[in-house]
Amino acid sequence: MLKNPIPKVTNQLQQRAIGIINGKFTPHNSEQINRGFLIDNNGEKIETVILGKALPLLKKHIDLNKNYYWIVYPKNKNTQNLHLQVAGIWDPYQLNDFPNDSSKTNFSKLLEELDLKDNYFSVRGELVFVNTQKKEIVIKICPSLNSKNLKNKNFKLVIKGELSLELLHSFISLDINRDGNSLHLIKYEVIENNLSKNN
Predict the structure, then answer these.
(1) Rounded to whole angstroms, how far apart are CA atoms 28 and 175?
(2) Residue 65 forms beta bridges with which residues?
(3) pLDDT digit string (tens) for 34-65?
């Protein structure tokens, strides 16, 4: 069974921002292995933190000279400045129960079978801002609705793309592509119109 690095949503209104990037992780220094840069296949560097749950993987299985598919949560303050949090590593052979015949390993083909590709992000949340001049939108994401300390959980993502102002405060599911340090809208689907009326 091929494990999907970006699981299907379990609930229509599930909010999230998650993506997959192929690259090499370089820690800032050997004492602090959980902070560094992810360097993608074009040599672009993205500021990256390895989250606690992914740290054992990094220490045990990862050869820092090799490229891997990293499962990441994106954060940014603007479209020039992406920051990633690594939640896991997608390696169907080493880390999953998948027949290990690495001579046939073609990860990009496997990703295609899952309708995914390198630098793809799935973002689901509320459209809270549209800047028509800059062609930018802001999506607010509250990852878990039942968490008590919501203040720390909510965050906003700035994405390059155009959406109608009429969609403000709607819950939207977006397919995003990363280019350098920017997130670009590929396509979107409105899941629920105007959330503020319903609250």
Answers:
(1) 31
(2) none
(3) 999 999 999 999 999 999 999 998 888 888 99
Is residue 122 within 8 A of residue 18, CB to CB? The reply is yes
C-alpha distances out from residue 61 to 58, 91, 157, 159, Å:
6, 10, 31, 33
Residues 135-162 have pLDDT tens digits of 999 999 987 655 555 445 789 999 999 9
* Residue ranges of domains in the chain, CATH in brackets: 16-116 (2.40.50.500), 121-198 (2.40.50.140)
> What is 100-124 written as a DSSP string?
--GGG--HHHHHHHTT--TTEEEEE
Q: Taking Cα atoms as reference points, which of 115, 137, 136 lies closest to residue 128?
A: 137
Amino acid present at 143: P
Cα–Cα dist 99/81, whole Å = 39
The CA R_g of the chain, rounded to the nearest whole Å, is 17
Helices (H), the chain: 55-61, 107-113, 150-153, 195-198
Short-list 188, 183, 161, 178, CA closest to 20: 178
- State the Cα–Cα distance between residues 195 and 141, nearest whole angstrom: 13
Which of 59, 76, 34, 37 has the alpha carbon at shortest distance from 184?
Answer: 76
Q: What pTM was computed for the model?
A: 0.89
- The DSSP annotation for 13-31 comes to T--EEEEEEEEEEEES-SS
Q: Which two tokens stand for residue 43?
A: 């040599």
